[in-house]
Specification:
The longest helix is centred in the first third of the chain and has 39 residues. This protein is about 40% helix and about 20% strand. It is built from 11 helices and 10 strands.
Length: about 350
């Protein structure tokens, strides 16, 4: 048995000297120290069959060899790991790890593109509050308290009852609340582009509870529907491309007269009808000639001045942009990098 232990030691030393990787080292550990069939393990199991006098010497040598094998295995494993780590840091020819690079959210990209398009025809961007007074959001827009036209906006109210001369505070349901604020600046003529967050109690594939809207307002002498139609056609061609079609439908808004809904041919199905459009057309928003009562609320003489306004959702507008196939508006704010990194 003593001879067997010495031979095992010699074989182990010969094999450990040939180790060049961790996989081979693991094989040696199993071969000599494995619980089921390790060579040294089998020797230790056979100690019980030896005479008592021999058992003591053999057991001592076997345990010493076990400790020696374990120490050498640990040493070689540490050296191999250290060598692997060191090689990785010292090889200056290897390319460095590329840092992740962020970019503007696609809603911000859309806003900047919209601003650039309208700046070319003289519109200036304004910003007005997201927490607004009822007066600016509704009453000044020809919608007195309890008027049924208010129901369309499904508003979030901050106050349960009026707290001052301008009524309750609300989360602004549309950027039209900036119209009279702009008129109060008394800087004529007006060519305003108000882009802001809006809030409504709506959530489905084409609506968000929080969304961005851009409001165009032009007031000057002798402004007609022809000017409105020209501005709308200009934007559609610039933003969506010359191959897209737009249409105007008669509608009713309390703050414009006459009023229109603006639709564009669906970019997902090419106007054939799909889950998004349900009929080939997608509504972008409303437009119309500013109601005389709204001009009066802004202290502007409706006999001298006229104007038009339009308000569209930024996200809904971007959904219809050429070359995109976004089936659900909620993807904009789902924080899924697989989606956002495409833009």
């Amino acid at each position: 048995m003593l001879t067997q232990i010495q031979q095992l030691k010699q074989r182990f030393n010969a094999e450990i000297a040939k180790v060049s990787d961790l996989a081979f080292l693991d094989q040696l550990e199993v071969k000599y120290l494995g619980r089921k069939a390790g060579e040294l393990t089998n020797i230790l199991r056979g100690l019980k069959d030896l005479p008592e006098a021999e058992r003591k010497n053999v057991g001592q040598l076997a345990n010493e060899l076990r400790s020696e094998i374990e120490a050498k295995l640990a040493q070689i494993k540490s050296e191999l790991k250290s060598q692997s780590d060191t090689d990785g840091f010292l090889d200056i020819t290897l390319p460095g790890a590329k840092l992740s690079e962020g970019h503007l959210h696609l809603a911000t990209q859309a806003i900047r593109e919209i601003i650039e398009i309208f700046e070319k025809i003289g519109f200036t961007r304004r910003r007005y509050p997201e927490v607004e007074w009822d007066w600016y959001a509704f009453e000044s827009l020809n919608m007195p308290p309890e008027h049924p036209a208010r129901d369309e906006w499904e508003t979030f109210f901050i106050d349960s009852k009026p707290i001052g001369s301008k009524g309750q505070r609300v989360l602004t349901p549309h950027t039209s609340s900036g119209q009279v604020r702009e008129m109060e600046r008394k800087e004529m003529p007006i060519r305003m582009m108000n882009i802001s967050k809006c809030y409504r109690r709506q959530l489905d594939v084409s609506h968000l509870a929080m969304f961005h809207q851009f409001e165009g307002l032009l007031i000057d002498e002798d402004v007609t529907i022809a000017h409105l139609k020209g501005v709308l056609d200009y934007f559609v061609k610039q933003f969506f491309g010359s191959d897209r079609s737009a249409r105007i439908r008669p509608f009713h808004f309390q703050f414009t007269e006459p009023s229109f809904e603006i639709d564009i041919s669906c970019g997902l199905c090419g106007g054939k009808g799909c889950k998004m459009c349900k009929g080939g057309w997608v509504e972008l928003g409303g437009a119309g000639m500013v109601h005389p009562n709204v001009l009066k609320a802004g202290k502007i003489d409706p006999k001298k001045y006229s104007g038009f306004a339009f308000g569209w959702g930024v996200e809904r507008t971007y959904l219809m942009k050429a070359g995109l196939s976004i089936p659900d508006i909620r993807l904009f704010y789902g924080n899924d990098l697989r989606f956002l990194q495409q833009f």
